Each structure stands twice: as C-alpha cells, then as structure tokens.
C-alpha cells in the first residue's frame, strides 16, 4: 500500500513537471522564436478602443411600385495604416506597398518614421482585393483594418435632398440635406475594431453596437426614375440657355409628397472634395428666395374671385400702364389693349390687370388673402435651413407695394413656398405640408409614417375650380397659339418672367431675369404639380420661351410612366 501510494505521488509529480515543461517550451516559442509573427498578427488585428468602425442608418428612394432603392448606405473596405514604433524597414514597406497601390513616397516615409506614434493611416477606402494583398505581405508594423464609409449609389441623384456628411470640429455628422435633418435617426454608436485575442478566446466575429430607440432608416418620397428625368430636364435647360442655374419640383398637390426636387448644377456626394465652393451643397429650392413674377398672379385672381369682387368675366380698360402712388406700373410690353377680361389678365399676363384686382380687394383684404396662402411662413418641409420669405410689402399698407406684390414683384419667396401656395388652387383650396420623408423604420421594429397634414382652407373649392378653368384656357387657346393643347388631358399652367434684383438691392437688373413656369394635371383632379425656374437664361426674354417645352415634356413623361388615364 505504501509503495503504491508513493508511486502514485511520483507519477502525479512527474505529470505536473511534464505539463509545466510543455507550458514553458510553448511560452518560449511564443515569446522568443515566433515573437515577430505574433507581433505582426496582433498588430494587424488589434487597435485601442478609441479606433471606431463607422456606422450609420440608410436612406432609400421609393419606386412607384413601392420597392426601395438605396440612396445612402455603407460601403465596406479597408484602412491601411502603419505603426512607426515597430516598423523596421520603412523603405522596404514602401516598395512593397507601392507595387500594390500607388502611394506618395515622401508622405509615407514621413508617417512611417514618426516618433512615439503607434498609428498613421496610409490608405483609406481600399477595396477587398487591395486589402487582402497588403495583408498577405505580412510586414510587421503594417496594419490592415476593416472599415465602413458612407456611399451614395446614385451619385448626384437628388444630392441636394440627400445631402452629405462632414466634419464640424471633431464631429463627423450630417452637414446638409436629410443627412443633417435626421442626424439623430441616422447616427449610430460606433463599435471598436475586433480585438485579435478576444477573437481567439471568445470567437467574437462582430462588435455589437449599442442601439438607441431613435435610430432608424429613412424611406423618402423621391421616385428615382422621376428624379432622374427631372434632373435631365434641368441640365438641358441650363446648357441650352447658359443659365446660372435651373431648378424644379414635382409634387402631389393634395398630399405634399415630393416625387422629385433638384437644382442644376448638382454635385456628387461621394466626391464633395471636387467642388470649389461649399455653396453648391446648399439647397436653393428650400433655402433661397426669389421674386417669382407672374406665377403669383393666379393667387391674386383667386383672392379677387373668392372675395366676390371679380369674376372670370369681369372687364376693365387696359391702357398698358397705370399710375399708383405717383409711380408707373406697366405691362411687360406697355401696350394698350382696351377692354379686356380677367381671363386675359392670366392668359396675357397683364400686370395692370393684377394691380386692378388688388385695388378692388383693398390693401387689408388683399394682404389677408396673400398671407393666407402662407407666403410669410416657412412650409415646415423636412429639410434643413429653410429660408425666410421676404414679404414686408404685404404688411406695409402702401398702395404701390401691394399693387406690385399682386404680380409677384417686391416680394421674394422660396421655390418650396411658391409651389405650396399654388397647390392651394390645384387641390381645391387648402394648404398642404411639403415633405420628402415617407416613413422612418426604427431599429426597435416600429415604423413611423409621415402623416398627410391638411392645413387651413384658404379659398373655396368653387374658386379653385374657376381659376383652374382659366388656367386651362391659357394652355388650350393662348400658349403658343394653343399648339400645346392635349386633346385627352386638361392641363392648367401659368408662366412667369421677373427682373432680377441687383446684388445688395438698389433696383433691378436691366438684362437679367428669372423665368418660371407652374402647372398641374389632370387639372380637375391633379396628381402632379410641377414648378420650374431658370435664373439668368441667355437668348430668350420670357419664361414661355425657355420652359414651356421642358414642362410639357415632363407632363408627357409622367402621363406615360404612371399610366394616367385621360380626363377629357
């Protein structure tokens, strides 16, 4: 028994000795023999928790059939970095790297030889092939990390709506467009790169992000095919007439849903660094104000008819000009027309006639109606930095100021305010809230749909129908001699031409104009309202010259694309 006991003790002791010897030998190989290999492996796959993987919610367009198309997403790739503290041969590392991807030698050597610096980025946004080739070099001190970055698959499609990211101080966040407006919903808690040793012992493949209840993805109202078509139209107008810029909005006048909205020139949000000025990233359709000219006349006529001071058949004697507060107000051509009707005021775009209707309304009532169209208010659109409309003249009670406001001069509006106001006539008399977001899908599983907000009634339905008839008449019988009349579809339109205000004020430019064009169809139950404008076009005097064909082409495209049935 004693022998067996002592033998067992010796056997156990021998086993412990052998186990300890194996551990010592293994540690020797790990720390001495294979030291460089494991340093390299750890170096390439481990960073401090301060280094983050970028993450952000997605933005989608929505096709007419309801399917989603990516507008803003994440793209995966690699960051290549160097650890100067352990990189033994910077020149050798440069030569090997440069065989895979061209890099600047001087910049690399400068970064690779920095003292007391464990991390310097050499290549960003490398694709999988390049990342793998560099990783296969197995150079101690050369690091390859997985990375994500913001990617816009459509390039410049709706770039002024989608916006871009950028730095403000140390914060990398949305700076323009929806990226900025919905920063709270799109922002994600960033996760640290995977720790190599944690992966060995815990088999951790991914780092879990901490989810917040407010995080989600955006589904926009933008229909990508319609958006692309509108952008092609804007580009063609700008190039044909050498305009400074051209903008457009296509919206449902009854719901405020925006199918397309853009201005040209545009930009590629994937390469904002190529732009000379950050001004191009702003959205003039929402942020800038312009004197819109004669597209405002339908609002004046609507006010007069709704108040009962005029009808479509009301006549007056048009001398080509009138004197108000000692100042001369003229038609665009100053020609005397004699007795004309209110229909002629719209069809021939007569400033004197608009001022006449305003005088019958009186300053107070006219101002109340125009402010009722919400011209003094922001629309509340779900995009950042909406501009403030300049409508002091509507509140001045000075005759000449209100008379010129009746035909769109002396008041400056954002394009989004303009289309919202004109939608009142199109939809039967009520205000709607323009919006670009259809819904937000939150990570917690809840979807929030943007409600259709119907605001106050501004004019009676009968008034909107009467003015609509007048605008249809303009297309069918007057615009280019009625050549744009569509036998099976009723279309209501109004053109506009406005002198540009001199920079800094002090009057109007003699040879610079803003052309505008608004229309909706099918006119008595419109699915779309379209607003176009072009700034400082060359070689054409009036909006009817520059924008009629683009407008009608867009109408035909929408009819075919959405298979809209005839209404007459």
The CATH architecture term of the largest domain is 3-Layer(aba) Sandwich
Alpha-carbon distance between the termini? 114 Å
Global Rg? 33 Å
Kindly give the count of domains: 2
CATH class of the largest domain: Alpha Beta
Number of helices: 19
Low-pLDDT residue spans: 36-51, 192-211
Keywords: Membrane, Transmembrane, Transmembrane helix
Subcellular location: Membrane
Protein name: Penicillin-binding protein transpeptidase domain-containing protein
Pfam families: Transpeptidase (PF00905)
Would you give an account of this structure?
The chain has 19 helices and 22 strands. The protein folds into two domains: 74-151, Penicillin-binding protein 2a (Domain 2) (Alpha-Beta Complex); 224-269 and 284-562, Beta-lactamase. Mean pLDDT is 89; it is low at 36-51 and 192-211. The strands form seven sheets. Strands 2, 3, 4, 5, 9, 17 and 18 form a seven-stranded mixed beta sheet that branches. A five-stranded antiparallel beta sheet has the order 11-10-22-21-20, sandwiched between helices. A hairpin with a 2-residue loop joins β6 and β7. By secondary structure, it is an alpha+beta fold. This is Penicillin-binding protein transpeptidase domain-containing protein. Pfam families: Transpeptidase (PF00905). The chain crosses the membrane at residues 12-30. Residues 249-540 form the Penicillin-binding protein transpeptidase domain. GO terms for molecular function: penicillin binding.
């Amino acid at each position: 028994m004693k022998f067996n006991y002592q033998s067992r003790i010796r056997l156990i002791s021998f086993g412990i000795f052998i186990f300890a010897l194996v551990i010592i030998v293994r540690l020797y190989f790990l720390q001495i023999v294979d030291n460089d290999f494991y340093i390299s492996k750890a170096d390439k796959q481990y960073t401090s928790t301060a280094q983050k993987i970028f993450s952000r919610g997605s933005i989608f367009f929505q096709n007419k059939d309801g399917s989603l198309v990516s507008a803003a997403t994440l793209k995966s790739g690699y960051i290549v970095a160097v650890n100067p503290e352990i990189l033994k041969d910077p020149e050798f590392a440069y030569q090997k790297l440069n065989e895979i991807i061209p890099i600047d030698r001087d910049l690399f050597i400068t970064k690779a030889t920095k003292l007391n610096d464990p991390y310097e980025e050499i290549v960003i946004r490398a694709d999988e092939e390049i990342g793998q080739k560099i990783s296969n070099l197995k150079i101690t001190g050369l690091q390859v990390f997985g990375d994500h970055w913001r990617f816009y698959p459509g390039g410049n499609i709706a770039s002024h709506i989608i916006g871009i990211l950028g730095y403000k101080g140390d914060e990398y966040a949305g700076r323009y467009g929806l990226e900025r407006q919905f920063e709270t919903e799109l922002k994600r808690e960033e996760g640290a790169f995977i720790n190599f040793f944690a992966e060995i012992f815990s088999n951790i493949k991914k780092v879990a992000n901490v989810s917040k209840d407010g995080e989600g993805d955006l589904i926009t109202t933008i229909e990508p095919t319609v958006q692309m078509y509108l952008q092609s139209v804007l580009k063609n107008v700008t190039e044909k007439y050498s305009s400074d810029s051209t903008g457009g909005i296509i919206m449902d006048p009854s719901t405020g849903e925006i199918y397309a909205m853009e201005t040209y020139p545009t930009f590629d949000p994937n390469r904002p660094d190529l732009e000379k000025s950050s001004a191009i990233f702003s959205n003039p359709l929402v942020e800038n104000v312009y004197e819109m000219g004669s597209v405002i006349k339908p609002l004046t006529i609507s006010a007069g008819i709704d108040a009962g001071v005029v009808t479509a058949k009301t006549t007056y004697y048009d001398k080509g000009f009138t004197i108000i507060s000692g100042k001369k107000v003229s038609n665009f051509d100053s020609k005397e027309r004699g007795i004309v009707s209110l229909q002629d005021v719209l069809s021939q775009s007569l400033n004197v006639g608009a001022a006449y209707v305003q005088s019958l309304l009186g300053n107070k009532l006219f101002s109340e109606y125009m402010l009722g169209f919400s011209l003094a208010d922001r629309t509340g659109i779900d995009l950042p930095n909406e501009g403030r409309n300049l409508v002091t003249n509507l509140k001045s009670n000075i005759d000449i100021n209100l008379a010129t406001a009746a035909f769109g001069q002396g008041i400056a509006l954002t394009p989004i305010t303009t289309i919202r106001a004109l939608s009142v006539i199109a939809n039967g008399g009520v205000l709607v809230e323009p919006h670009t977001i259809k819904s937000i899908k939150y990570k917690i599983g809840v979807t929030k749909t943007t409600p259709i907000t119907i605001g106050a009634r501004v004019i009676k339905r009968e008034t909107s129908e009467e003015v609509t008839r007048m605008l249809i008449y303009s297309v069918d019988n007057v615009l280019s001699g009625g050549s744009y009349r569509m036998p099976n579809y009723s279309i209501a339109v109004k053109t506009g031409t406005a002198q540009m205000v001199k920079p800094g004020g002090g009057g109007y430019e003699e040879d610079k104009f803003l052309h505008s064009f608004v229309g909706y169809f099918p006119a008595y139950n419109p699915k779309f309202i379209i607003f176009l404008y072009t700034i400082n076009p060359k070689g054409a005097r009036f909006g009817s010259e520059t924008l009629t064909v683009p407008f009608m082409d867009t109408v035909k495209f929408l009819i075919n694309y959405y298979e809209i049935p005839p209404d007459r």
